[in-house]
Amino acid sequence: MDKHFLTPLFAPQSILVFAGPVDDPEAQTPQARAVVASLKAQTFSGSLRFLDIHSSGTLAELAQARSDLAIIALPPKDVAAALEIAGRVACRAALIISSGITAEQAAELKKIARREGVHLLGPNGLGLQRPQLQLNASAAGPLAQRGSLALVSQSGALTSSMLDWAANNAVGFSSVVSLGPHTVVDIAHVLDFLANDAQTQSIVVYLEGISSARRFMSALRMAANAKPVVVLKAGRKPAGNEAAQTHSGTIVGSDDVFDSALRRAGAVRVRSFVELFSAAKCLASRYRPVGKRLAIVTNGGGPGVLAADWINELQLALGKLSAESAAQLKPLLPELASLTDLLDLSEDAGPEHYRAAIQAASRDRGVDGVLAIYSPKAGNDASAVATALADEKKTMGKPLLSCWMGDTTVNAARSILKEAEIPSFRTPEAAVGAFGNIASFYQNQLLLQQTPPPLSTLAKPDIEGARLVIESVLAERRKVLTEMESKTLLSAFHIPVTQTILARSANEAMMIATQLGFPAVLKIDSPDISHKSDVGGVALNIMNATGVRDTYNDMVQTVKKLRPDARINGVTVQSMVRPRHGREIYIGLVTDDPFGPVIAFGAGGTMIELINDRAMELPPLNQFLARRLIERSRVAETLGEWRGSQPANVDMLEQILLRISEMVCELPQLREMDINPIIVDEHGAVAVDARIVIDHATQGVSSRIHNYNHLSILPYPAQYEQLWPMRDGGEYTVRPIQPDDAQMLQTLVQGLSKESRYFRFVSSMHELPPAMLARFTLIDYDREMALVAVHKERVANGEGDFTETERIIGVSRYVTNPDQSSCEFSLVVADDYSGKGLGSRLMQSIMDVARDKGLSEIDGLVLVHNPGMLRLMRNLGFTVKTYAEDPDFKLVSHKL
Fold first, then answer.
1. For the chain, what is the domain count?
2. Does residue 327 sit within a domain?
3. Which of these three, 647, 677, 705, is where a domain ends?
4. In a designed cystine with 721, which of 480, 647, 735, 874 is the match (CB 3.0 to 4.6 A)?
5. Range 37-55 average pLDDT
6. How far apart are CA 653 and CA 657, in angstroms?
């Protein structure tokens, strides 16, 4: 139970191969011949057996062929039979390398695999490679070099191309996985395995589509939390949707949403095959997240300026030496060297000058990475400079990239750089772009760490009132809310709106406008008209009662003429909002397939499609995410002091975004939303116009029981927070774990006795490794849960004052098993808090959460010589059994 469920597939100790008659290659499929040749080209570290499904024998005899993994490379008509046999002889995983299998056949294979309990990769893929195991179970060519980079691809052609490129660029792989269409083990499962794979340090993904956004985001967030992930996404759809009923639906394309999803998951997206190779070079060198400041060391001004321009284009920062560093470096360089911006060493630079400049940049706190550019010069030795870089790489703690320009005269130097695992590029732009990928990963990790609750800490909204509005509209079989209904919904969540009153006659409009005050605004009120201004349905700056009366009559006549089919309820009246220095902002909502609701922010007004300013984020939001969302928009530049106006109230915009996030989380019926414009100035913000589109919540989605299934990222489950009394006085809080609990969790583990640490981790380690600590604290609450018991302690300082600190004194955790119906638990309690009922409370609480998630059974492994834990399990009603696979453990289980 301590191994990943896909270990039999990716790290098998025994393999059974179904490839037709081994002694008659002519009777085999092309894929079978390729797979057999690949398997025999090197010595697999485990056992390897071949079996022909047409040979005679009994199941009893076949049972001797029991293996971890079955590899099936047969004609489509024979694949199902081979999979049946693999299941009967207890193979736990199967890999199908066969082409031409239809969707119907694939569905039948999936049924067989599920019935037999087999994890199935394929069909229609090229297979997999695991170089460390000397395993080449693929039709993708020779076994790749061994390395720390994993490649996961939904394209067989790209897989082969990537391996061919890697062979000549000193890039090695821990895993290569080719996923065909209709595979049961999909990209989410593979990412889940690689996140926990010690051999894999970084991951490159080529993606064409996903089946489940929640599962994909869960696996990708886990993987990106543990190691860098770079994604190349194909099939970029054009922005816009002809069926959209709001501006948001018109200007936000699915590719924009995918960008937002990857960013929120902590991964980096590249746009081209060339960029993917560049990223692979950097990841293979094990460069880790850094800041955005890249120093340029060059022997030619032109290439350096090109690199600096591209740094600016990618919104990176040029790394500059401090005055002190520059003063120390200057005497070591040629006379014509310049250190003002670039580290331009002049054309007289030699190996010793590059060495000194790189050392200075590496030590400087204002530099996050170094790019060394070399242009061939008569009399200079390109290889000697490359050797100097290779020597410096051994001691550098920051990314070092290189760009040796030219061709014939620098080939030998490039070989030196490749041998030293220094990423080498032929153009400055490519090198800067590769560093940009590393920097983006660092920025996206900050977004990944955010786990907001569904409701902010602002005043509680009137959720039930909002639901009543939605239910009444749906009861009328309408989906588009009127402006009045939309603003009512916003008001229920405390979003400031202009006072709007519906007039059903010209006289009513005149009286309402007189009471509200002039100048007035009139807008047509119709559930059938999305963009009112397109049909003359908006009138501004009406200065008197007569003008209101005449405008009402003209507007209704015009709209009836242009849209005779539209239902007209009347005309809404409101006061004109004209702050002297107000900026027009737009906040919207779209629902994407498959990622669900997405919040958009940008410049507002009547030319919103033309301006096309949009930044997006997946809900839920917190203040950090809301601020980053605003900063990514172009309109953010106008929110400070601008053209004589005071800075806008950005705090108010953040609050409105948090309120919109609350609406999205609590109201799964929302489909599209436009708040346009929001007028913001130094005093505050107000929503002038709003339009919302709704629909019935999809089956299985209900906000009333807090499952939030309509979101691709599950909010922080604040509903599981509880306060409990301690037996000997005091109290403690039991709550779900958060990413910033890492240090407290580490302190708990370090404070455990050797016996307690061994009972929990079956290891003598003194503390959690960084990767495991990250894995334990940033979790996906949908597939696992960790509850921590937090006790506040008062500690006296030397001056007699008391300071209050928080301490984690216990953790209970479960992880959902692959069957999606049971889970495995773990429990640890601080030694000085044992015997106080803490373990019992944590176990009961974690069982309640598992029960709430619909799981039916919880189980775990307990060491035989851990009598305290076994006694606790029996007291809680767990069944204690012998664990057949290891006599040192007992298997404890409980029906939920």
1. 5
2. yes
3. 705
4. 735
5. 85
6. 6
